[in-house]
Specification:
Layout lengths: L1 E5 L2 E3 L3 E4 L1 E8 L11 E4 L6 E6 L2 E3 L2 E2 L6 E4 L3 E6 L2 E3 L2 E2 L6 E4 L2 E5 L2 E3 L2 E2 L11 E3 L2 E5 L2 E3 L2 E2 L5 E3 L3 E5 L2 E3 L2 E2 L21 E3 L2 E5 L2 E3 L2 E2 L8 E3 L10 E5 L2 E3 L2 E2 L8 E3 L6 E3 L2 E3 L8
Parallel strand pairs: 1-4, 2-5, 3-6, 4-7, 5-9, 6-10, 7-11, 8-12, 9-13, 10-14, 11-15, 13-17, 14-18, 15-19, 16-20, 17-21, 18-22, 19-23, 20-24, 21-25, 22-26, 23-27, 24-28, 25-29, 26-30, 27-31, 28-32, 29-33, 30-34, 31-35
């Protein structure tokens, strides 16, 4: 496709959409005042759906149920973004830019930036991306997104892998109305760059200049087991740099905050120049 396609789109079959030209975009603001995800990929109508969006900008969505730019729904849904940008979307509860609910989501050479998960005053997770299943980023950037927690990426007991990617400039605001505790069911605890409650692997990647505000912990990464055995949870940093991240309002772990009995695995990883501390 070329030019700008306005409105909301639901895809329930195998499909590849390739943008032609620099201005190729899917824009939700031209229909219903952006009241919905710009793109919804669903396996509701088929046991498996494979969708590729290439060389596109997805923008202007607003969905109070999450996934302002994109919703990927169902265990049979596999969505790949190639050379695409998800920007200036808003989602409530889960995923300002992208909500990956049960499917597989892959980003290759793509950017998720300037999205917000803050529609619900009681707490929203995953300003850039919210995922509960499988999320893989390769050569991609998640930047300048905002949420109550998990400013850049929120991993809700799924598997997230970053390869040669960047998570930077994201903010977890930790609203005063969020649950505020640390027991089962409370997910609003910080994670300016990434909030992890599953399996997280960061390889050859940067987590830099993210922030957890208002007493949140883990300016760069917040990682913890929750609602399940610790065997379902891990954090691995390999040839990764976590730097220049901060927490404010009494939080700890400017670079990395983790809880549980099994510490993260760091191999040739650098955690440095975070404030007020590097690791807690």
């Amino acid at each position: 496709m070329s030019g700008v396609c306005y409105g909301d789109t639901t895809i329930g079959t195998n499909l590849t959409v390739n943008g032609i030209g620099r201005g190729a975009a899917l824009n939700g603001t031209g229909y219903g005042n952006g009241a919905g995800s710009v793109v919804t990929v669903t396996s509701m109508f088929s046991p498996s759906v494979t969708v590729t969006l290439a060389n596109l900008t997805i923008t202007g969505g607003s969905n109070g149920n999450g996934g302002g730019g994109i919703q990927n729904q169902g265990q049979g849904s596999a969505l790949t973004l190639i050379g695409s940008t998800v920007t200036n979307n808003a989602g409530g509860f889960h995923g300002g830019g992208i909500g990956n609910y049960g499917g597989a989501l892959t980003l290759i050479g793509s950017t998720v930036t300037n999205n917000t998960a803050s529609v619900d005053p009681n707490g929203d997770q995953g300003g850039g991306i919210y995922s509960t299943r499988t999320l893989t980023l390769t050569g991609s950037t998640v930047s300048n997104n905002t949420a109550t927690s998990g400013g850049g990426i929120f991993n809700g007991q799924g598997t997230v892998t970053l390869n040669s990617s960047i998570v930077s400039g994201n903010t977890a605001t930790l609203s005063s109305n969020s649950c505020g505790g640390s027991g089962p069911g409370c997910y609003d605890l910080g994670g300016g760059g990434i909030e992890n409650y599953g399996v997280l692997s960061v390889k050859n990647s940067l987590v830099i200049a993210n922030k957890a505000e208002n007493g949140g912990s883990g300016g760069g990464i917040y990682s913890a087991p929750i609602n399940g055995p610790e065997s379902l949870y891990s954090l691995t940093l390999t040839n990764a740099i976590v730097a220049f991240n901060t927490v404010t309002g009494g939080g700890t772990g400017g670079g990395l905050y983790w809880t549980g009995t099994t510490p993260p695995t760091l191999t040739n990883a650098i955690v440095v120049a975070n404030s007020p501390t590097n690791i807690n």
